[in-house]
């Protein structure tokens, strides 16, 4: 672009100085002496001075309004009070799903619309469906919605200007400077606040329900486009609304938080010199300033550029002109209206004007591992009949089991969640098995507040499309959906409806339709039923003879069974995720395996996931005592000799407080819910995965370990579920709550057979539940809340459809932030609750109070170690998201964010830091380690994650 | 010519400086009343510039009368600040380039170099205010370099370096001993304005959201981990 401009200038100067035109120049110079031209020069000077004066005066309406110089009734805070009283008086509640606000162009001096503007609004109102509410009569160029012609010192003058033809240019000039005020980084926030308040008041008066999620579309004509974007941050904050902007020949600076808008439709005519050239004044619109909000929004697929045809900026030949006719016979107004109506009335899930992001046709087109895996019949849900019967050796993994089914885009508003195909239900609800019911979030206000927080419109970014071509699984079915909620992003994360889940605390409502209401995200599982067996013999057809556990003898001497271990598909590097080769010789076979799966149509139990029983038993192989020794163990020892341990497990209990072994083990009691730190290492051997410079960073996540009584062997065991903050990947692993059987144990999609894994279970009293005289607060609940939010954001890539790992965004960074935020949130919650504060004041020496003080100390330690400078703004405010973007898009922010949280940059470093902090604060840690379990695969070796520094 | 003073020739001198005329700087130092005239330039430039940057006072909702007073006091503080800068520049020029100039001459020269900042009020113009500030700053810097070059044998780059050095020394000394001075000046400014002026961007943003009907943030978390907690504590 720049080069082209320079070329044009060069060409012009060549023409000017070398051609006969040069003579004209000289002639022109001679004329300068002329009296007439002198007069014109003076005229020019006067205009120049007038422009400067107008510019000088422009900001003072907004500034004086804010400072309250116009008297009390126009004081901004007072105005808001008046506004809300008026709202209370005229309160109309409305369930309109869509509000449309029109902000007129800079020709506006009074409430009266220009002839063309009035026609446009009239026809727009006529054509809109009856449930849309159109709000007009807003003067976007006055912070107090005051027309130029009324109640101003110069009102008489403007009235005169309105009457006299050819003087509109003065109004244009005056309002143009107001647009400049809105753009200005100093005055803009004040000015936009004023206009936003007017729009908010009007929306509330027309019955807008803040937080209802009803869509607001701002249509800004010309300068109104800029003002529309300026008010967005305020509207977002007050109304918590999804906002779209239609800029009609809009002049947009790109300074504003264009990234906060759900979508921007930018309609410009090809002959529109104003909308095309004024942006040259705004550096943020230049393509070389690639990190500006404008360019970022462009890359993220948030701006659709739409041509209005050969149309000028305004008046005759403008987009609202009825007399100008296109070649195809329709006039300008008709064409403009039809585009705007298509946008306003478009159906969900379909985008008539998608953003101009290149959507593929790339050179490479890699098939994902996921696509290969689901070729195998046993990886498809319909391989397993829904109705299943079992003897007492098999149990369902949870009461409510089933498959998530993404509703069709037209059914969304009715379903308000997703479909759930019930595969297993409690005995009282047996009739639901085999049915498709609605699965929704509970309508409790606290749950709904959370649900609304993560709703987002998805438009795939350029990188998302590229990533699909590289064989990564993205939520392609959700592209262009509005207000995608967490259940939809879970069900739609993969191209097929194959997400199997378990539900907790379900409320069944049987109306005309049956709905299940849940309070928490479903947990992804593998295998609906399970048994505890030892493998006796491998048969040639991928089947195996197994013997069930006998709880009375404590041995594997119960009945024999034949189960099916299907041959899994190799990954793209040729690595087998699981094998049963020599599994009978595994040291873990004697103590048995939990096998998870279901019967296929032939009635053969098909093993989809396995888990070694000893790993989860509350029987450590070794106890290490003493603070020094335990810290040292975390520091240097626990990933030692990884290669030699292939095929084995470790279960090590760290006891920094020197408690007697049995007392320590018994402190893990049934019902405990404990924090878990998870890290995995790499795959080496003959088919190693990519590890630059031999560094393998691995992966980190939090999880929750519960101590439960396992009914089959009648013993206590750990039950583990992860909160995987996981970017989109080739395997189709979904960011969400994943059961151990799904993320690790799964023979096809899990890592048990191919990666070394360490799970550290943290027993720390300060993280346990607090009970302040009946008021309970649980830090891990806050962690679940923060992580759920983060995982939902990862699934949608904050509306871009893709999340990428970068220095500032990764499993480990975002998990650590969630943890810190969670403890902070718990503390703030306690701080803000008067009853709890009273209780604490009355019980200064109570165990709960003392424990709380230690939580504060723990929080400080985490802050010092992992969050050295400050909480990153993009964590608190998802509109500052970096999730859907890559380093190159926002180099400065990304690098600053990475530097400010460098300690949580590497999974293992963060994991070890956290473990050490917990040890120092009195925690006991239980390390559960696995090193490529199951059958023996000669081709691979386990690799410990690299720990840089110390 | 002898009846001429720097005050009577004030505008002629100012426009000469604006045109970066080196001769004018020599003239300034030869005319009587050069010192008060130069202080006047700085004071007017200070007034103009603080008016140009008065948006901060508006955001803090300063009343009209106090607004005028605040601009005036800021202009006076501007003069003081200027004098410190001159002093440090003079010291730097002496130490670095061993130029021995009378302090009064430096004060007069640098004072008149501030003439471009008389247009500081133009910063008020929306959007174009920032580029105007940049242009004025460069213009001022050029005037300073020309002025210093005219009254000494310093080349333009050396003059520039002494200014920069002076500015650095000033910043440093403000960091080291300036805390107390800064506190006093901000107290004076707050007292004149009648409100405690807030300048941190975060707080300014908060102020802008005050008065809007923003729904309170939900502080009570939903119990996502289910009922087990109650079951356990009940049992």
Descriptive overview:
The complex is a heterodimer of chains A (950) and B (235). Chain A has 4 domains: 2-51, no CATH class; 61-344, 3-Layer(aba) Sandwich (Rossmann fold); 376-390 and 398-524, no CATH class; 623-943, no CATH class. Chain A contains 29 helices and 31 strands. In chain A, the strands form 6 sheets. Chain A has an 8-stranded mixed sheet. A 7-stranded mixed sheet of chain A has the order 12-13-10-9-8-11-14. Chain A has a 6-stranded parallel sheet with strand order 2-1-3-4-5-6, sandwiched between helices. In chain A, strand 15 and strand 16 (543-548) form a beta hairpin. In chain A, helix 9 (188-205) crosses helix 10 and helix 23 packs across helix 24 (811-832). Chain A is elongated, with a radius of gyration of 33 Å. Residues 78-89 and 878-889 of chain A have low confidence and may be disordered. Chain B is mainly α and 235 residues long. The chains are: A alpha+beta (950), B mainly alpha (235). At the A-B interface, helix 3, helix 4, helix 5, helix 8 and helix 9 of A face helix 4, helix 10 and helix 11 of B.
Write the layout of secondary structure elements.
The complex is a heterodimer of chains A (950) and B (235).
Chain A: H1 2-18, H2 21-32, H3 35-57, H4 60-67, H5 76-90, E1 98-103, H6 115-127, E2 132-135, H7 155-163, H8 168-183, H9 188-205, E3 215-221, H10 223-239, E4 243-248, E5 263-268, H11 273-277, H12 293-299, E6 303-307, H13 332-344, H14 369-373, E7 395-396, E8 400-405, H15 412-415, E9 418-424, E10 436-441, H16 445-453, H17 462-469, H18 486-491, E11 499-503, E12 507-510, E13 514-518, E14 523-524, E15 529-538, E16 543-548, E17 560-564, E18 593-599, E19 605-612, H19 613-616, E20 622-625, H20 627-637, E21 649-655, H21 661-666, E22 673-680, E23 682-685, E24 699-710, E25 715-724, E26 736-739, H22 740-745, E27 756-763, E28 770-772, E29 775-777, H23 779-796, H24 811-832, H25 834-842, H26 847-866, H27 873-876, H28 891-900, H29 907-920, E30 924-931, E31 940-943
Parallel strand pairs in A: 1-2, 1-3, 3-4, 4-5, 5-6, 10-13, 17-19, 20-21
Antiparallel strand pairs in A: 7-15, 8-9, 8-11, 9-10, 11-14, 12-13, 15-16, 15-18, 16-17, 18-19, 21-30, 22-24, 22-27, 23-31, 24-25, 25-26, 27-30, 28-29
Helix pairs in contact in A: 5-9, 8-9, 8-10, 9-10, 20-29, 23-24, 24-26, 26-29
Chain B: H1 10-18, H2 22-30, H3 34-52, H4 55-59, H5 64-97, H6 103-113, H7 129-151, H8 156-176, H9 178-193, H10 201-209, H11 228-234
